[in-house]
Amino acid sequence: MTCHKLAAASFQLLSLVSFLLFLNPDSSIFLEATTIFANSNTADDERSNAACIEEERKALLEFKRDLQDPLLALHYWVGKDCCNWHGIVCNNQTVPLPTSIGNLSNLHNLDLSSNSTSGPLPTSIGNLSNLQNLDLSSNSISGPLPTWIGSLSNLQNLYLSFNSIFGPLPTSIGSLSNLQNLYLFSYSISCPLPTSIGNLSNLQNLYLSSNSISGPLPTSIGNLSNLQSLYLSWNSISGPLPTSIGSLSNLQSLDLSSNSKMNGTIPESIGQLRELEHKYLDCCSWEVFISENHFQNTSRLHTFSLSSEASNSLVFNVSHVWIPIFNLKILYITDSKLMDTAFPMWLRSQKFLNILILQRLGISDIIPDWFWRFSPFLQYMSLSHNQLRGNLPKSVSSTLQNVSMKNNSLVGSLPLWPNVTQLSLASNRFSGPLPLNIGHEMSKLVFLDLSRNYFSGNIPRDWTG
Ligand SMILES: *[C@@H]1O[C@H](CO)[C@@H](O)[C@H](O)[C@H]1NC(C)=O
Ligand SMILES: *[C@@H]1O[C@H](CO)[C@@H](O)[C@H](O)[C@H]1NC(C)=O
Ligand SMILES: *[C@@H]1O[C@H](CO)[C@@H](O)[C@H](O)[C@H]1NC(C)=O
Ligand SMILES: *[C@@H]1O[C@H](CO)[C@@H](O)[C@H](O)[C@H]1NC(C)=O
Ligand SMILES: *[C@@H]1O[C@H](CO)[C@@H](O)[C@H](O)[C@H]1NC(C)=O
Ligand SMILES: *[C@@H]1O[C@H](CO)[C@@H](O)[C@H](O)[C@H]1NC(C)=O
Ligand SMILES: *[C@@H]1O[C@H](CO)[C@@H](O)[C@H](O)[C@H]1NC(C)=O
Ligand SMILES: *[C@@H]1O[C@H](CO)[C@@H](O)[C@H](O)[C@H]1NC(C)=O
Ligand SMILES: *[C@@H]1O[C@H](CO)[C@@H](O)[C@H](O)[C@H]1NC(C)=O
Ligand SMILES: *[C@@H]1O[C@H](CO)[C@@H](O)[C@H](O)[C@H]1NC(C)=O
Ligand SMILES: *[C@@H]1O[C@H](CO)[C@@H](O)[C@H](O)[C@H]1NC(C)=O
Ligand SMILES: *[C@@H]1O[C@H](CO)[C@@H](O)[C@H](O)[C@H]1NC(C)=O
């Protein structure tokens, strides 16, 4: 099935207007287009008088044909002057790529990043069959990624981020068997990823964050055996994570954050990823149990981030006495449930932790004594919105700077922790007088929230100085 929806995402360019070109209420097929930039080769500041560049006009017509739109949604696009076409903005401040570029048949490296280039990708680039590196990042290139991109069979690096490229990744992308790096942060790549993406057997880094990619991830993604980084955050990917993800034996970073339509189970095969260092799964509407098996072989993991938008549906099921094989630096789990609501003892093995966020997990326990000194690197900690009980200790690790224990059931008096700069103890059951010497004892403090507790007495005068 052809994906016709060319998502209109918000571009960084202020002048951009998005609108519906055509909508047939009887059909689910519709074309939503963003304004397309084309160039004017005149110095005329009247847009209607600006003449469009012939090659760009052809490229736009080719795009129109590629759509195979049975309803001729783009029938407006007629006439010589493409600057007058619906949805096209001609811009005389930017420079188009010259057509003659296609004559440089021995070119290996074309780097025109941040070069104020605009308009559709010139077809002539498709003739540069020896091209190995194509970098057109940070320009104003508009329009879809053309099918001919697949003819650049020697391409190793394709950098097109920060342009106005929209529409699907063409199936032909799978022909780029030498491709190692594909960078397309661009805000508007839409439609599901083509199955052919699994053909890119040399691909090492795939950066497609901040687009409008929809649909489920193709199973073929598991064939990218050389993949090291997979960045798909901020898209509209739906459905489950394919089990084949466990075949990406060289994967170091996996980022699926902010794809709120991803749901279903997180396959245990993810635990096979031996090289994985960063795992971001704080994205989705997961409805699953995360078990120790999800971490079976991930000994190199140092960042783990997990949350679910489907409330209370994600259950972290690891045993009280689990000793994980990884040593995390950053741990971020929020809005989930722990199967075992006792304090997670496995944290004690994490002696390299620097940032620890465990919020809204329903932990219902007394904080154990070891917790305040278990990692000599811990700087930021939040255990907010749990049901923690007990007192806070008189002293904590000297590295701790930012502590939030907001909304728990902690009791006792206000602790004086000299090196802490930000402290939130709001919504607990702390009591007793406020210490007079806090300004002296906690001289580095810049933020203190003690609201909704049972402290007594007045706010000491020297607190206000
Ligand atoms: C086009 O260029 C002219 C002068 O060369 C300038 O005055 C005008 O503002 C430009 N218009 C646009 C839309 O860039
Ligand atoms: C590019 O090649 C075409 C013929 O293939 C020729 O007509 C044209 O002059 C060439 N352009 C340049 C800039 O060499
Ligand atoms: C674009 O690249 C050309 C050739 O390297 C250079 O002369 C020109 O200054 C660049 N333009 C911009 C806006 O960077
Ligand atoms: C390559 O150049 C020829 C003319 O020399 C042209 O007909 C053809 O369409 C070009 N192919 C691509 C992929 O640009
Ligand atoms: C991808 O690989 C399959 C199987 O090897 C092949 O049939 C298909 O033509 C390839 N697709 C592309 C776009 O290269
Ligand atoms: C990888 O591709 C082969 C065919 O080339 C296919 O048989 C296999 O199932 C694919 N593996 C995955 C994980 O998609
Ligand atoms: C995932 O979401 C889709 C669309 O909302 C729904 O049809 C499907 O049943 C969900 N899958 C699971 C496993 O919840
Ligand atoms: C994962 O770990 C298990 C047991 O620790 C081991 O048997 C297995 O071979 C490992 N798998 C990989 C892919 O390293
Ligand atoms: C939780 O994990 C334990 C041990 O791995 C397993 O026996 C149990 O079935 C799991 N519970 C659920 C509900 O998945
Ligand atoms: C406090 O935490 C509980 C969960 O322990 C949560 O339900 C409640 O909304 C939180 N209250 C505030 C004010 O955040
Ligand atoms: C505060 O931090 C310094 C180093 O930055 C350290 O020498 C000192 O012992 C710490 N104080 C306490 C009470 O932890
Ligand atoms: C530190 O604490 C403040 C106040 O609680 C919070 O707003 C801020 O985001 C925290 N900074 C870091 C780096 O965690």
Throw out a few tags for this protein.
five-stranded parallel β-sheet; 2 helices; 34 strands; mainly beta; 465 residues; 27% strand; binds 2-acetamido-2-deoxy-beta-D-glucopyranose; single chain
Summarize the biggest pleated sheet. Answer: 16 strands, parallel
- Measure the end-to-end span: 68 Å
**Could you tell me the radius of gyration in angstroms?**
28 Å
Helical residue percent band: under 10%
Helix and strand content put the structural class at: mainly beta
Q: What sort of overall outline do the alpha carbons produce when their principal axes are compared? A: elongated
Low-confidence stretches: 4-50, 66-74
- Proportion in β-strands: 25-35%
Cofactors, ions and other ligands in the entry? 2-acetamido-2-deoxy-beta-D-glucopyranose
- Averaged pLDDT, please? 80
What is the tally of beta strands?
Answer: 34
Tell me the number of helical segments per DSSP (H or I, 4 or more residues long): 2
Signal peptide: 1-28
Family: Belongs to the RLP family.
Subcellular location: Cell membrane
Membrane topology: Single-pass type I membrane protein
Task: Please provide a written account of the structure.
By secondary structure, this protein is mainly beta. Helices cover 4% and strands 27% of the residues. The chain is built from two helices and 34 strands. It has helices at residues 54-66, 438-441, and strands spanning 18-23, 30-34, 36-39, 88-91, 109-111, 118-119, 133-135, 140-144, 157-159, 164-166, 181-183, 190-191, 205-207, 212-215, 229-231, 236-237, 253-255, 263-264, 278-286, 289-291, 303-308, 315-317, 330-334, 337-338, 355-359, 364-366, 380-382, 387-390, 402-404, 409-412, 422-424, 429-433, 447-449, 454-456. The strands form seven sheets. The chain has a 16-stranded parallel β-sheet that branches. A five-stranded parallel β-sheet has the order 26-28-30-32-34, with no helix packed on it. β1 and β2 (30-34) form a beta hairpin. The longest helix is centred in the first third of the chain and has 13 residues, at 54-66. The protein starts with 17 loop residues before the first strand and ends in a 9-residue tail after the last strand. Residues 289, 291-292, 317, 319, 339 line the site of one 2-acetamido-2-deoxy-beta-D-glucopyranose (NAG). One of its GO terms (cellular component) is plasma membrane. It is a single-pass type I membrane protein. Residues 172-358 form the Disease resistance R13L4/SHOC-2-like LRR domain.
